[in-house]
Design a protein that fits this description.
The structure is a single chain. The chain has 17 helices and no strands. By secondary structure, it is mainly alpha-helical. The protein has a domain of 85 residues: Alpha Horseshoe (Serine Threonine Protein Phosphatase 5, Tetratricopeptide repeat). α15 packs antiparallel against α16. The radius of gyration is 51 Å and the shape is extended.
Length: 389
């Protein structure tokens, strides 16, 4: 029930009670009743006056108490205002240490730390490790200093030494190649046979999209495009080859080698032997590089492909500090061609680099000069020649 309805209900009760009393007094009809009512009303008025006087007296007491409370608060406030105030804000000292690149907070912290150290107790300063000896004071030598110095020098020398990847002597088990590469259907045909007409055409399009991304050197996008196709068509040679090339360009040597080994098994060809051998070279599996080089050399599919394999094999020998063997491998069968092609330039550049490493500077200069004359701007041949003059 709301306060307004409560108040209205009470007023109605009062009205009904007044009516009932007047009716009862009228039915009694006595004059004495009227006088009694008059007396009661007069008594009521007097009582009301007494109550109002009490209220006035009590209200006046509360006002006086309230005024006394206010005066006490005012006195305390005045006392606090009259007292000297203490400035509790942190005084910011100027930056004392640290470069500007640290930022304000770091430099301020370093400054406060330096101030705290300056204001530290003299006893701590005497115990500090970097204090300077006083005049006439002989500094005691640490008996373990020589041993600590030797251990530190030994640790530094270990860091400076080049860390070589441990090479593997066990060759990966692989079946011998057939006399001729296997003749397989085209990739699109294989995908349609495997996945159906509609799905096969979509898969062939994804393979082409991955090839375009690879040509544009967007290797991560190519990998993402080809990923689902690898699971659905793991034995399609074109899919395996593209996946291996992408992993090779991403530097994931083990995975790329597995893909290329699978490609060799499916096709029976040496088309990707240089890439496979270079993966094993990066892993330090030099025995596999040698075996793949012999396999490629004996098959001799094309001059360009054999040259790529020769470059990887010679680089592997150079990695083992066998520069003499590497130079002999690159020199074998080398003649200046009448018309230089890409694989001729690559072989001559690599041989000149080996000449420079082995100390044959005149030979390196002559061969770099031939590359520059045959193909101006090839690789960094201009800078290499300037360095040798």
């Amino acid at each position: 029930m709301s306060p307004s309805s409560d108040r209205s209900g009470r007023s109605d009760d009062r009205r009904s009670e007044g009516k009932g009393d007047s009716r009862g007094n009228g039915r009694s009809g006595g004059k004495g009743g009227g006088r009694d009512n008059d007396r009661s009303s007069r008594d009521g008025r007097s009582d009301n006056r007494g109550r109002s006087d009490d209220r006035n007296r009590s209200g006046g007491g509360r006002d006086s108490d309230r005024d006394a409370g206010r005066s006490a608060v005012d006195r305390r406030r005045t006392e606090r205002e009259s007292e000297p105030r203490e400035d509790r804000r942190r005084v910011r000292e100027p930056y004392k240490t640290g470069p500007k690149s640290w930022g304000g907070v770091a430099r301020r912290g370093a400054g406060w730390l330096e101030r705290a150290e300056d204001e530290d107790s003299p006893e701590r300063k005497e115990r500090t490790a970097n204090r300077r000896p006083k005049k006439g004071e002989v500094e005691e030598e640490n008996p373990n200093w020589d041993r600590v110095k030797e251990e530190a020098e030994a640790a530094v020398s270990k860091i400076k030494k080049p860390i070589r990847r441990p090479h593997r002597t066990v060759v990966v088990k692989r079946d011998p190649l057939p006399e001729a590469p296997r003749r397989l259907p085209e990739g699109d045909t294989m995908l349609v046979r495997l996945l159906g007409d509609k799905a096969g055409r979509r898969a062939a399009k994804r393979l082409r999209d991955a090839g375009e991304a690879f040509q544009e050197e967007r290797f991560v996008d190519a990998r993402r495009t080809l990923y689902s196709l690898e699971e659905r068509a793991p034995d399609v040679a074109e899919v395996v080859e593209m996946s291996g090339l992408i992993l090779y360009r991403l530097g994931r040597w083990r995975e790329a080698a597995k893909k290329m080994e699978r490609f060799r098994e499916l096709t029976g060809s040496t088309e990707q032997h240089p890439v496979l051998a270079d993966c094993y070279r990066a892993l330090g599996w030099w025995a596999d590089v040698d075996e793949l080089w012999i396999e490629l050399r004996d098959a001799s599919p094309s001059a360009a492909l054999v040259t790529e394999g020769r470059l990887v094999a010679a680089g592997t020998l150079a990695d083992q500090d066998k520069l003499k063997e590497a130079v002999a491998l690159m020199e074998k069968g080398w003649n200046f061609p009448k018309r230089a092609r890409e694989h001729h330039l690559r072989r001559a550049y690599a041989l000149a680099d080996l000449y420079e490493q082995s100390g044959s500077i005149p030979r390196a200069r002559d061969l770099f000069g031939w590359v520059q004359r045959s193909a101006p701007g090839f690789a960094d041949v201009d800078q290499r020649l300037k360095g040798l003059r």
